[in-house]
Specification:
This protein has 12 helices and 16 strands. By secondary structure, it is α/β, with parallel strands linked by helices. It folds into 2 domains: 167 residues, Rossmann fold, CATH 3.40.50; 174 residues, 2-Layer Sandwich (Dihydrodipicolinate Reductase, domain 2). Helix 1 crosses helix 11 and helix 7 crosses helix 8. The longest helix has 17 residues. The two termini are 13 Å apart. It binds nicotinamide-adenine-dinucleotide. Nicotinamide-adenine-dinucleotide binds next to helix 1 and strand 2.
């Protein structure tokens, strides 16, 4: 049983903790918080041991009657592996602490790629993180693109990818972020940082990206154009994508026209927090014109990296060298794909348990 410490119990950290708790081969060693806010209370109610970021903040927890077990270094010492889910740029300040205790560490996409030995996506390059001292689970957008590009590269080849990322302004709890009434080229520079980030996963891919920010907190939407080496039909591409457990092809009959209905659908399906762990690709948008593939996909920024963190834990701890085994185990424990209708057959997908 792997004891997983989670440093930073915010948007990503709390979801990773809940996902760890559901795995048959992992348990939550504890989580850190800086203040005894509502998330600290939730962590305590869920039964997670709470650690504070430093000695100074312990007094605040005591005053609020929220019990703590120690400070972050105590958690690192008690953990077989640490998932760093602190805000962008803060993670790297903990790198020395993780090394000092020789505790393998995962960082998130807000950190620079050189914070870790490997940039990680389970479907694309699981093996690069096996037994690594550290790995960086790439950002929500890069995760969404890596999952999509891996099977496309394998089956049809990618000559050139061009993606426009229409990004949510902030997460629902980010009350200070915007825009609230504008459409921003963001970043204005082209290519945006997303293309180079995808290259940390696929070093030889030819990709250009443009980014925008819009006034929504729901999901990102990607407008994707890939010039393929091969010239398949749209049906062949749809068929290839439908075989992928973390790609969900939205059938037309569901009448899901955007992120609002999509999240309503996953809430109706009983997903925790309405999380959408899969890339959601509008099946009707999948079009091929003279070897150029076009499609739209929606990416739930708060959720898609969560199963990837679980797989990265198994990789850095050397628990399985097989991406397929880890992905199946993670999917089975979380219910990825199980409660969303399969596009082609109308049957329900089943996540099969891993066999080792
Ligand atoms: P967040 O602000 O929601 O949560 C961060 C947590 O870390 C908070 O609980 C905060 O109190 C805590 N924290 C702050 N400083 C700390 C410190 N010094 N020590 C310990 N804990 C500290 O952030 P988030 O959105 O969960 O992002 C975390 C990481 O995940 C970032 O690298 C981000 O880029 C990446 N990421 C975020 C999203 C997203 O959409 N939110 C998606 C993918 C990746």
């Amino acid at each position: 049983m792997l004891h997983v410490g989670i440093n930073g119990f915010g948007t990503i950290g709390k979801r990773v903790a809940d996902a760890v708790r559901l795995q048959p081969d992992m348990t939550v060693a504890g989580v850190t918080k800086r203040s005894p806010n509502f998330e600290a209370v939730v962590a305590h109610d869920r039964g997670y041991d709470l650690y504070t970021a430093d000695e100074d903040s312990r007094a605040q927890f005591e005053a609020a009657d929220v019990p703590t077990q120690g400070v972050v270094s105590d958690l690192v010492e008690a953990s077989d592996v640490v998932v760093d889910a602190t805000p962008s740029g803060v993670g790297e300040t903990y790198a020395d602490l993780y090394s000092e205790y020789e505790t393998p560490a995962l960082f998130q996409g807000g950190e620079d790629a050189d914070v870790a030995e490997a940039s990680f996506n389970a479907r694309a390059n699981y093996e690069r993180a096996v037994d690594a001292e550290s790995a960086r689970v790439v950002s929500c957008n890069t995760t969404g693109l890596s999952r999509l590009f891996a099977p496309i590269r394998e089956q049809f080849g990618i000559e050139k990818a061009r993606v426009t990322l229409v990004r949510r302004g902030g997460d629902p709890s980010d009350t200070g972020r915007g825009p609230i009434n504008d459409t921003l080229p963001d970043p204005v520079e082209i290519p945006s940082h997303h293309g180079p980030d995808v290259e940390t996963v696929f070093p030889d891919i030819d990709i250009d990206t443009m980014g925008m920010k819009v006034p929504t907190t729901q999901m990102h939407t990607h407008s994707v154009n890939v010039t393929l080496d091969a010239d398949p039909t749209a049906a062949e591409v749809r068929d290839a994508l439908s075989q992928e457990s973390r790609l969900f092809l939205l059938p037309e009959h569901l009448d899901i026209d955007g992120a609002g209905k999509l999240k309503e659908y996953t809430r109706d399906a009983g997903r925790p927090r309405g999380d959408v762990w899969e890339n959601c690709i509008w099946a009707e948008s999948v079009t091929v014109e003279d070897g150029d593939l076009y499609l739209f996909q929606a990416i739930h920024q708060e959720a898609d990296v969560v199963p990837e963190n679980i797989d990265a834990i198994r990789a850095v701890c050397g628990r399985t060298t097989s991406a397929e085994t880890s992905i199946q185990r993670t999917n089975g424990a979380l219910g990825i794909g199980q409660d969303l209708l399969d596009h082609d057959t109308g049957t329900r997908r089943t996540g099969s348990p891993a066999d080792d």
